[in-house]
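Students often ask what a holo structure prediction actually looks like on paper. The answer is less mysterious than it sounds. You provide the chain, you provide the ligand, and the output is a string of discrete structure tokens encoding the 3D arrangement of the protein together with copper (II) ion.
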Amino acid sequence: MGVQLPRRRGMSRARLALTLGIALGVLTLTGCSSQTQGEWKRLAMPEPGTQEGTRILDFWVNSWIAAMATGIVVWALMFWAVWRYRRRHEDEVPVQTRYNLPLEIFYTIAPVIMVLVFFTHTVRLQTDLNALSDAPDHTVEVVGQQWSWTFNYVDEPVAGGKNVYESGTGSYIPTLVLPVDETVRFKLVSPDVIHSFWITGFLYKKDVIPGRVNQFEVTPNRLGDYRGKCAELCGAYHSRMLFNVKVVSRADYEAYLQDQIDKGFVSDTPVTGNKISTEQAGLETEGGTE
Ligand SMILES: [Cu+2]
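The corresponding structure tokens follow.
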């Protein structure tokens, strides 16, 4: 008779192998397309479309690396302690350690240092992102209203100092057009409630608050189409507050403005405060179709 193998241990090993196999399969299957691979590399962030977005992405990825490194050390120590000091016999109580001053000082100070490092980097980046230049290449006044967006190209006056604009409604999704490699300042205003101006591919958003003008600047550096949305629950049709963003060449940008002028999207002053009624927006008033 040979040695009898412990049955239970064999079973749990098989289960472990199966779990690992499934996990590996999921990883391999989901990691096929180059787009998905890029998302893995960026830790779920979209590909940044601005100079600022690149810095935000770096900060995001590096923060995760630092957090994971900390996590791995902590998990390793935890599992080591659990295994090393496990109870080996029914009636045995492991050594109980308490009031270990050096240890307590260490695990108080170490997290404080980590928080300080994260905080310093956050503040530094935030300060840079909120800094306004003396003379941005363009200024767009963004009006967030229930429930769409208006974009006023305030520094591109037509003859007579008029203002070119694009205005959306709950059923018409407006498009914001920006020239590549030129700095644009957004001035955010709201005639009604708090909204949040968010272009996902720019990796940055800012609240649009009635009674004040929030501002920030970006330099788009990648041609392409981006999506924008309101990131602050602002009422029944909040989900309709979508917009498109096109980053185009200088020539296409000028052509776009001319096209808006030709279509008559020109006003004496920036289009603002024009709260769109539910009927104008083409929405149901009661028992909405949302
Ligand atoms: Cu909103």
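DSSP finds five helices and eleven strands in the chain.
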